[in-house]
Amino acid sequence: MERLPTPPGERPEEADAVVEAAYTATATVSAQGVVTGWSEGARRLLGYESSQVVGGPAGRLLADEGGGGEWDEAAGRGRWSGWVGLRHQDGRRVRLGVLAHRVAAGGQGVEWLVVSAAGGGPGVLGGEGWGDQAFAQAPCPFAVFDGGLRLVRANAGMERALSFAEGEMRGLRLPEIAPAAASEEAEDKMRLVFETGEPQQVEGSFPVAGSGPQGGWSASLAPLTGPGGRVRAVCLAVHHRADEHLVRQRMLLLNDAGARIGTSLDIVHTAQELADIAVPRLADHVVVDLCDLPQHAEEPAAGPSGRPLAMHRTAVRSVLDEGSGPLLTVGETVVYPEPSPVAECLEQERGARYGTADSAFARWVAGDPGAAWIRETGTHAVMVVPMRTRGITLGVALFGRSRRAEPFEVDDLWLAEELTARAAAGIHNARRYTRERTTTMTLQRSLLPHSLPDQAALEVASRYLPAGSRAGVGGDWFDVIPLSGARVALVVGDVVGHGIRASATMGQLRTAVRTLADVDLPPDELLTHLDDLVIRLSADETGAESAGIGTTCLYAVYDPVSRRCTLARAGHPPPAVVTPDAAVYLLDVPPGPPLGLGGLPFETIETELPEDSLIVLYTDGLLEAREGDIDEALDRMFTALAHPASALDTICDRVLAALLTHRPDDDIALLIARTRVLDTDRVAAWDLASDPAIVSEARQHATGQLAAWGLTDAAFITELIVSELVTNAIRYGRPPIQMRMIHENTTLICEVSDSSSTTPHMRRARTFDEGGRGLLLVAQLAERWGTRHAPTGKTIWAEQSLTGV
Hints:
Blueprint: H1 12-21, E1 24-30, E2 35-38, H2 40-46, H3 50-53, H4 69-74, E3 79-87, E4 93-104, E5 110-117, H5 130-137, E6 142-145, E7 151-154, H6 156-162, H7 166-169, H8 174-177, H9 181-196, E8 200-202, E9 217-225, E10 231-240, H10 242-260, H11 267-278, E11 285-291, E12 310-318, E13 333-335, H12 341-348, E14 352-355, H13 359-367, H14 372-376, E15 381-389, E16 392-401, H15 410-447, E17 458-465, E18 474-482, E19 488-498, H16 500-518, H17 523-540, E20 552-559, E21 564-570, E22 576-578, E23 584-586, E24 605-608, E25 614-618, H18 630-642, H19 648-659, E26 668-675, E27 683-688, H20 694-709, H21 715-732, E28 737-744, E29 747-754, H22 774-781, E30 784-789, E31 794-801
Antiparallel strand pairs: 1-2, 1-5, 3-4, 4-5, 6-7, 6-10, 8-9, 9-10, 11-12, 11-16, 12-13, 14-15, 15-16, 17-26, 18-19, 19-20, 20-21, 21-24, 22-23, 22-25, 25-26, 27-28, 28-29, 29-31, 30-31
Helix pairs in contact: 10-11, 10-15, 11-15, 15-16, 16-17, 18-19, 20-21, 21-22
């Protein structure tokens, strides 16, 4: 049994008697009055063994008749205290003061816990001098001031606090002992105590020696009354507010962490933010190690037996100077063995505190090379905190102290867990953003053209830059689509929003544009069909933001034969044109509404472009500068375009360099095309009479032109195609009829036009049919064929490849 200090004037054996007498007797009684528990103290008090009492009625232990009535009255209050007469085993009566508490039983229901300090009655520790000793030896500083507000008593704690002995301070007022504003305030409060008899509190920092500028002490004043309740003196008690100061500092650190951790969507940067904010305000050293993460954020972390312990040292911070050793090595792989404190914390999924006195911790530090930084920095206290969020273990954070002598407290561990949880959430978001961005960019790259098609009408170069903001990759796109008659369509569009949905919508619209372009719709009609598609896509987005509403698009068709460009736009920025003499201007294309609004028309304009002109199509991200307005951005773009360059790639790079000083906040698509013109000797046209006899003449025109071009090897197939197309126009169309042949690099194009709008259809002729095989024959002989409509009439065309001819 632990020995208590021997009071002055007592022999050691008397002190032992006091300790021996001071034991506690406890028993538990069920709500039905049955004894359910019996302590050793209860056996010593009443002489009954546990087996003699437990399970029997508690009433048989009472020595007084009706002694349980007071207990019954106290049942509603849940507690009771008083004196009870109990029957000792030897038959004598024992009167004891007891406390009874109603507590929850081990199973269901409640029971009574009955307690008695068996040797603790009056006189056990109530000898003379104990009050004086308690005053003198109390750790809290105390002092007593008389009616004149002069000190008459001071304990050792107050002597230490004020750095004066009691004899040096006796008879002096507090402002004379410790001149300070808090002393003046305390003395004013003492007067109030004498006047009102009410306790007072000194809110300011009490002037304690060595407390520093932050203070950290407060004082309470209480009246000391004599006979009749008159206040005879005032007791001053000083309280240390170190705990309050620490709580305030922890709350400030936690508040700062909310603003400083997770400021970017970068995993390494977020881990470093955790280390930076914790040093030196919480720890002297911080190490953040991240493990290999599962492929999907929704996957649960590996179980204890399969948890990965190979981690990557991602961030470090130390109060030591740079180059202090292995602590500052970032990027290396660290393997935590099992068993080790890190492995244990990861398995139990909770943080823990360790010190050099912990044997398991000391063995790990001594034997694991990965813990070398703990040894070499003299770290004596470590907290290990798993980085977890949404059921996923991302890594571990280690906090160490070497310069600060105090160990980590429970509240320090709580704070470290809060900081680590914030960092884990930021890292999880950064990883999810990175994965989604990678997925979106992969999807978008798969939908954008990998290479621009070869064609003779335009020389084309392009650039695509994804957004660098948190919003993610958008839905900007561009395309170059070869059309019939050596023409080429240029498309650029911008789907509203960012992320996978925007990219998916972009893919649907790009496919739709290609399909509509394949049937040679005029630009305004194509945008009208595209507008209907966006409306249908928006209607399908039940319960979500409507996809595509606000999407913009510009569609242009250039004809190298006529040098004319036809354009229409749906809410998209107008294209720029650069003439061969370096004049730069915006084409005045009617803006039209953005796609998805419905019911509003689009307008088409047609302009003639000289050979070697530049057509510049772009999305609005190119002009949305963080600083300056759109006019300044346009001026910079015009200046970059006005400088001639032989390579279009050079012009693209020059434009981007002039307009971008940072990662763009929105996607940027840039498409620049240089116009070419087909020489007149590459195009031949003939007006034909609506007479079947003219078919042979048409074949002669074709073979003669092929001879002029040096393409006589293609004459046989061309004659067959011309015969079928002209015959169809004469039989099913209306005059006037025209035939045109275009020699475009490695392609030969044959076209026959008439004024009928009826579209021919290929059908399969039956065995004895005399016709119906013409278009089937054309489809077999040509690389591709089709029909395009004009405001009046139509054109049937067929393309042959001249490769190998």
